[in-house]
Amino acid sequence: QAALAREPFHVVTRPLFNATESYATYIVPGVLVLIFQQTLLVGIGLVAGTRHERARACALQPGARPADESLAGAAWRVLGRTAFYLALYGVHATVGFALVFGAHGFAVRAAAPDLAWLMLPYLLAAILFAQALGALFGERETAMFALVWTSLPAVFLAGFAWPREAMPAWLVAAGHLLPSTPAIDGALRLTQLGARAADVAPQIAALWALAGAYALLAVVAAWWREARLRDVASA
Description:
This protein is an all-alpha fold.
């Protein structure tokens, strides 16, 4: 009678989405989405630094006169690079969700078209963000040192490993400037909670907004870098 009074009903707890209640199932799917952004940042930064080193060396040669590039020319350069990286990482994303998630036992409850609606603006925003940052690096090594350490802050700013309610407001606002923040939120809802594309429309809209903003920034940054090379050649 005492046991019955203490627990009149036998409670059975069944987690809906993290059936094993493991840390890996909770954290790793978000980190896998973040990897796309971080490898783009480091990779494009290294390529940009190498390109700027070679361009500066050519500009320092006697009689070198770099072409006077307009904003339109810079835009075409950014567009061409974006198309290449998007095609490359489209394959990476497909392999990641189709094979890597399955190999590690992580659920993918979303339909492929729903994931594509989210990943397209995410990859675009991350690629353009990386190109905008890449214009700042004049050497290959600088890009590596400056970007490798950003992975851990990006994890916490995304709000899935550490609650946003425990962050200062300015950090929450800064986190929304990273493409990974809305992308991880949307990807976890799609893959782990079984949401549809319409359910993550705010995250998709935020990614398109970031892609547009970083596209303008990448074009201006590419044009600025060419102007710096012209100054070096004329000095």
